């Protein structure tokens, strides 16, 4: 910067000097005859001034070229082109300025190269991931669609620039139905013999100050097939265990009843028959619970007043309630949610918690409702928390392992989710979030 100031001052001084010399020369020519002797000096002065001006320009020409080059490279940096550099053979302040300028260009060039490499890596990962990814702008125009999305929704063609509703209008009816339901969920594409299962999730985020939607379609067929085999094995073990526990005493008591009849010991028959009836009813209830889980219908959403809904629950199980706001209304399947909360509240009472510590809270969130069942029982260890929501997993001696799994199924059918977590100070919190439609 000091060199630049010196250059500017020298240029101005030289120009002023030359102008002064020329002015004196011209003035001397136009003076009276008394000054004629001085006029002879005017022409040499003009020539000397012109020569000085030419010499100064020649001396300062490299500096001007350097400053023009620096200005040009700065303009290139501004436009994103970092391939230019400046060469200066001289030293001093100008040499330091040129070196700093070139170092800046090298740093910007390396950063741009690293950024390009990361963008290429990210684009390669996004394009080749098996999860179909679609980015939609606020005008519902597709900004990005990877290869999996093209294959699933566009017959392999590019999706960028198309309106998302137009692309969805040509998709499989199962895909259209999954998007029409709203929220996250699972759906199947194809026939029973050749069926693919997908999980749909949608998230909103801000990009360049505008809200965009990121849609993910993950194929779960192979993973679910493996889990399905494991689940069926577990189902067979559970059903075999329950059937043996019920049929073995029934068979034994039936044999004993026949012996009592043969010996005419009729007074012991009512007890044997009552036990047979009890085991048969237990087996009937067990099979009914499995059938209910397997044939859960789609929820029928209707407006429900939370205050009236909670009073209906209180007639079946005891708990304290906290409702905010008190006049809230939600669109839910009242029958399904009622059965779910009855099971959760009964579990809370069976956890070892005192009855007055069993609570139900319902709170309004910006776009959803949060429902929590709280107790002060023994809680759950890490292993139980990780598996409690899986079908057929139970820590109870005579449990079917369907209560929490059914609650999860109902919550997800409503477009929501459920989670379990231990409370500080002891106890369990079962949290369910349902969308406010």
From TrEMBL:
SMART domains per the UniProt record, alphabetical: HATPase_c, PAS
Protein name: histidine kinase
Presence of the UniProt keyword Transferase in the record: yes
UniProt subcellular location: Membrane
Membrane topology (UniProt): Multi-pass membrane protein
GO molecular function: ATP binding
Keyword terms of this UniProt record: ATP-binding, Kinase, Membrane, Nucleotide-binding, Phosphoprotein, Transferase, Transmembrane, Transmembrane helix, Two-component regulatory system
EC number of the protein: 2.7.13.3
Stored SUPFAM superfamilies: ATPase domain of HSP90 chaperone/DNA topoisomerase II/histidine kinase, Homodimeric domain of signal transducing histidine kinase, PYP-like sensor domain (PAS domain)
Domain Histidine kinase: 238-437
Enzyme class: transferase
Keyword Metal-binding: no
Catalytic reaction list: ATP + protein L-histidine = ADP + protein N-phospho-L-histidine
Pfam families for the chain: HATPase_c (PF02518)
Annotated transmembrane regions: 38-56
UniProt cross-references to InterPro entries, sorted A to Z: BphY/WalK/GraS-like, HATPase_C_sf, HATPase_dom, His_kinase_dom, HisK_dim/P_dom, HisK_dim/P_sf, PAS, PAS-like_dom_sf
Cited CDD domains: HATPase, HisKA
């Amino acid at each position: 910067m000091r060199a630049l100031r010196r250059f500017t001052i020298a240029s101005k001084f030289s120009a002023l000097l030359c102008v002064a010399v020329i002015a004196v020369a011209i003035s001397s020519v136009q003076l009276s005859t008394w000054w004629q002797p001085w006029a002879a000096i005017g022409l040499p002065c003009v020539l000397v001034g012109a020569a000085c001006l030419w010499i100064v320009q020649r001396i300062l020409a490299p500096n001007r070229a350097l400053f023009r080059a620096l200005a040009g490279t700065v303009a290139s940096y501004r436009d994103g082109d970092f391939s230019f550099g400046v060469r200066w053979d001289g030293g001093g302040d100008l040499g330091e300025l040129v070196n700093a300028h070139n170092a800046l260009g090298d740093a910007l060039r390396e950063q741009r190269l690293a950024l390009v490499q990361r963008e290429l890596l990210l684009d390669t990962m996004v394009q080749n991931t098996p999860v179909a990814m679609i980015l939609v702008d606020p005008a519902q125009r597709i900004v990005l669609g990877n290869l999996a999305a093209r294959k699933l929704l566009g017959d392999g063609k590019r999706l960028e620039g198309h309106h998302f509703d137009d692309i969805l209008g040509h998709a499989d009816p199962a895909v259209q139905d999954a998007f029409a339901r709203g929220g996250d969920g699972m759906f199947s594409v194809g026939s029973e013999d050749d069926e693919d299962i997908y999980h749909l999730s949608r998230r909103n985020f801000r990009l360049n100050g505008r809200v965009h939607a990121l849609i993910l379609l993950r194929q779960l067929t192979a993973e679910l097939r493996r889990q399905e085999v494991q689940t069926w094995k577990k189902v067979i073990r559970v059903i075999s265990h329950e059937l043996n526990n019920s049929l073995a005493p029934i068979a034994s008591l039936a044999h004993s009843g026949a012996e009592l009849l043969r010996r005419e010991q009729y007074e012991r028959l009512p007890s044997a028959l009552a036990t047979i009836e009890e085991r048969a009813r237990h087996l009937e209830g067990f099979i009914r619970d499995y059938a209910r889980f397997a044939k859960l219908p789609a929820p029928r959403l209707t407006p429900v007043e939370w205050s009236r809904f909670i009073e209906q629950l209180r007639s079946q199980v005891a708990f304290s309630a906290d409702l905010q706001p008190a006049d809230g209304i939600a669109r839910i399947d009242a029958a399904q949610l009622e059965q779910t909360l009855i099971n959760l509240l009964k579990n809370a009472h069976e956890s070892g918690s005192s009855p007055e510590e069993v609570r139900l809270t319902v709170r309004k969130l910006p776009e959803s409702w949060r429902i929590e069942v709280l107790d002060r029982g023994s809680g759950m260890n890490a292993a139980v928390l990780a598996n409690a929501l899986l079908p057929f997993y139970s820590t109870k001696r005579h449990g079917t392992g369907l209560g929490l799994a059914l609650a999860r199924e109902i919550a997800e059918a409503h477009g929501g989710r459920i989670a379990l977590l231990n409370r500080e100070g002891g106890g369990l919190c079962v949290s369910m979030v349902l969308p406010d439609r």
